[in-house]
Amino acid sequence: MLNLCKYTLIAVMLLCCVLCCTNSTYAQDLEAKVMVESGGSIQFNINSMRKYNEGMALDDWTRLAISFHDNQDDDSTWKLEIKSLESSIRGDYGHDLPLEYIIIESRDGEGTNNLEAYINAGEIVLSDGWQPLVENAPQGDFSENKIYLSFRIGTGEEEEDALLGNHPDYYTVTIDLRVSEQ
Question: How far from 94 is each of 17, 150, 161, 169, CA to CA, in Å?
Answer without folding.
Answer: 58, 26, 20, 8
